[in-house]
Each structure stands twice: as structure tokens, then as C-alpha cells.
Amino acid sequence: MVTGPIQQPSLVARPRVAHPVGRPADPPPLGLPGEPRPAGLAGDVHALGRAVAVASTEPRWREAVLLRLRPVRQGFAEHVRATEGPGGLYRELLTQSPRLDHGVRLLTREHTAIVAAILAAQQIAERPEAHPDELRHRVGHLLRKLARHRRRGADLLWEAYQTDLGGET
Hints:
With 169 residues, this protein is mainly α. It is 61% helix and 2% strand. A two-stranded antiparallel ribbon has the order 1-2. The protein is elongated and about 50 Å long.
């Protein structure tokens, strides 16, 4: 039984920022101007998906994908620190709900695989001779891993905070 308000991801409209001369500009947004986009890592993942979906014949396509990959790498590193760190979410979950140990270990293993997928996509993006389809494949693989990880994490949190088994504390 749900006992509180159901929270939805935060949506914010991100204004376009002018870039200094010599730095690549943001790829043109898809959708309507001012359309809300997810904030944080979810927004960065969304932006990466949009960047890789643009035709690879566009000028500076590879650079745009690489530009969008960097915040995903940084945001995911922050996610790992927030979940696995000494005062992280996983420690809190295991303290309150030891039954979630298997799920926490699975998510922790996924962190390693996702970091490897980010690095693989980055290496392909940095190689100008690499075929665009190879980069699309790597980024698609990364996006699927991130989506699966997000779902599993959400399921684990649901199980931890919405399931009342009684007798655990």
C-alpha cells in the first residue's frame, strides 16, 4: 500500500547558454523551445540520447556526442559516490532492510559495468576514424544499461520503503 505522495522526477526547463568562442555549441534541441527536460543525471542521459540520434552527417556530430558524454560520466561518478560511499544510500538500505543485500550487490556490480561502458563509448567517440555506427552502438548499449540500472534501483527503493514486512527493526 502506498502511504504518501508519489514522487515524479523533477522537470526543469534548461535555458540555452552561449558558449565562448572555440567551444562547441549545444546541438539543436529536439522538441519545442522551453520544453521541460529532466534535471541531473537523467537530463544528461536524455541529452546524450538526443545527441546520438542526430544524423551523423551533421557537422561536429562526434564532438557533440562526446560533449554530452562527459556530464553523464561525471553524474554517474557522483551517483556511485552517493550510493556506495561510507554514508551512502546502500549502507542505509542494508541497515534498515538486510533482506535487500542481493539487490544492493547487483546494483554495485552494475556500477562497474556501466563505468566500463561509458569509457568504451568515450574511447570510440575520441577516435575520428571510428565508424559512426560503432559509436551509436556503444552509446545505445550504455543507454540501455543506464535505463536498466535506474529501473532496478527504483524497484529496490520501492521494496525498501513501500513494503511493510514487519519485524525487521
